[in-house]
Amino acid sequence: MSPEPVLLSYDLHGNGAPVIFLHGFPFNRHIWDDLIPYLSPYIQMILPDLRGFGHSPASEDVLSMELLAEDIYHLMDHLGLERAALVGHSMGGYVALAFAHLYSQRLTGLALVASHADPDPPARREARYFTVAQIRERGILPLLEDMPPRLTPNPTVQEKVRRFIQACSPQTAIYALLGMAERADANLWLREINVPVLIVTGSADPLIESARIQAMLEQIPVASWVELPGIGHMPMLEAPAALARALLGWVQQFQG
Ligand code: MLT
């Protein structure tokens, strides 16, 4: 039996076109907080904690990207939103792509921040299984040791990243790693996307290959790409004003 959807914990800020922000792994809704002053005068920002993260209910299952997308569909029902735009950071981008595939009729726009459509190559999948085994033995420590320097060159941002990692439960991290390892190839869905798409990357992000973004852009009917110079995997913490500027340009393409 497939897991039941849960009601996610969320924050609302501002008025205007509804835009739902999906955090990456292993973060929570507060990763977007630095954007609130820039964006809330223009849009309604909906900031959920994905299942198992922050204050949302714990998961009893592997966090597949489809399950996380279904939770967003139910959050929209709860908020009385027929349609909304999605911004997804990294793992949140994988969820946003699954949502675009499953529920395209409920989408007005799609923005991917430091994210992409590729499935895990075999070596990356094996690395995730290894990390899962380590977390079973040592709790969240392996993520604390490994992730911050890989995600950003900025020491202040690394410290913020550490605090987010400490707030993530080991069981949620395990379920999310397994869900990401098993995710589908979202490249197969790109041609179906019929809303404005924005891709934002950092030029110093070791997790994102520019050639792969170029290949994605060629598949998506209406897409633009903003690359932020010198920025790593965490543009919302490293360069919130520049990220907000890019997002506002994209919002203008679909707001009524
Ligand atoms: C994230 O930031 O959400 C993760 O690094 C994504 C991933 O591990 O593929």
From TrEMBL:
Protein name per UniProt: Alpha/beta hydrolase
| Domain annotation AB hydrolase-1: ranges | 19-246
UniProt keyword Transferase, yes or no: no
Q: Which UniProt keywords apply?
A: Hydrolase
A GO molecular function term, named singly, is: hydrolase activity
The lineage's top-level taxon is Bacteria
